[in-house]
Amino acid sequence: MSEKVFLLPDLGEGLAEAEIVQWRVAVGDIVTVDQTVVEVETAKAVVDVPCPYAGRVVALHGAEGEVRPVGQPLITVADPATDGTGADRTEPTGHAVYREEERAGSGNVLIGYGTGHGGSRRRRRPRVVPAGHSTAAPATPLTQAAPAAVPTPASPVPAPAAGRGPASPVPALVISPIVRRLARERGVDLSTVRGTGPGGVVRRADVEAAPVAAATSAAPLAAVPDLPAESSERPSAHVGLAPTGAQDVVIPLTGIRRAIADKLSRSRREIPEVTIWVDADATALLETRAAINAARPDRPVSILALFARICLSGLRRYPQLNARVDTEAQRIIQSAGVHLGIAAQTDRGLVVPVLRDADRLTTAELAAELAATTTAARAGELPPARLTGGTFTLNNYGVFGVDGSTPIINHPEAALLGVGRIVDKPWVVDGQLAVRKVTQLSLTFDHRVCDGGVAGGFLRHVADCVEQPALLIAAV
């Protein structure tokens, strides 16, 4: 039988593996060219992977929750017109087993992806395969029941024995870590959710449609017994204490969370960073934004876009900060263009989408690109290529209601500008005390690429442009 093996493709710069979140097809299904067959999570995004072949699925290489290296088999498709069963082998219990060639590994890799992965690194998760179904990926039964207790297509499901009480509730079939996290964030009790996926697996859509469960983070206080009338003392309730029997919450460090941890840890290990800061009167900047938007209401400009324009002006004057250090070659590389990273908080964690050649954009174009990019990042729709290659990062942590921060540099960049919240504060203007819109600016920089004079000059230029936006025109 003619079979084609689709290998896990390169999903972006520096990505060597991906976790299988959800299979969209099963063994025996007919697929078409470019049909999405699996949803995977990389260190940067959740990605739908299409299959380049058409035919009948004869094997799925990897279970949901398993990490597969790039270049290793993902799915095997056979020509549906070819004679042959192509069915996978199953145990009498109905649980799928690996094919021998899958145990050994095909050894095929994509050109340029490397061959050093060998086998895949797997995290076991409870999984049930419905009667009459099987896949080429191993499934771990929830219980080690005798084979006779597992229903097959030829034997009906046994009825409960007479005299027994009602059956215990069956745990929800949740395989995806994303679904579990979403349920925790929304306060949804997974045991009450009816899964609509294959075999009753709970999907994200099921959690989003489920009613929010009542808060269970704290146990109710025990009833206080009535005391005799002559007693004026009553026991006090221990308000705010953790409930008895509370257990630790274990969150696997996977996907984008692991990528963030690795990158920030490397930044702290390698970069001798220094943070400096200054307060700036942003009253004139807010007035400038209001004037621009009043003149061009069809193309509004955000405060973040104006800060981006100011950063670009500063980097033109101080290009030493638009650089990276090549530690192996012992050299500093100053980038010709400014690829501006914008730190964005999403449901999946902190991501830094990049605006390529931001220094070539007008202020209006910057505003439009920023709006589109941050929206796509929060929706998880950015391709992995948009999340790498930055040369300088702008971080607006003021949206969280904080004044200042000492952020960690986004490795391998050399600097990061942070913007705190803009609030009313007393400020001296022409010798008189006044209430002004004040923000705190912080610059974290790699001391290997420059000294304090360059970093201080850049930050002072940024602060001056915030206080006097007309300086931007003079700097052009």
Folded structure, characterized:
The structure is a single chain. This protein has 476 residues and is α+β, with helices and mostly antiparallel strands. It has 3 domains: 1-154, OB fold (Dihydrolipoamide Acetyltransferase, E2P) (Beta Barrel), CATH 2.40.50.100; 177-209, Irregular (Dihydrolipoamide Transferase); 258-475, Chloramphenicol Acetyltransferase. It has 9 helices and 19 strands. Helix 6 packs across helix 7. The chain is globular and about 85 Å long. It starts with a strand and ends with a helix.
Question: What is the compact description of this entry?
Answer:
Helices cover 22% and strands 21% of the residues. It has 476 residues and is of the alpha+beta class.
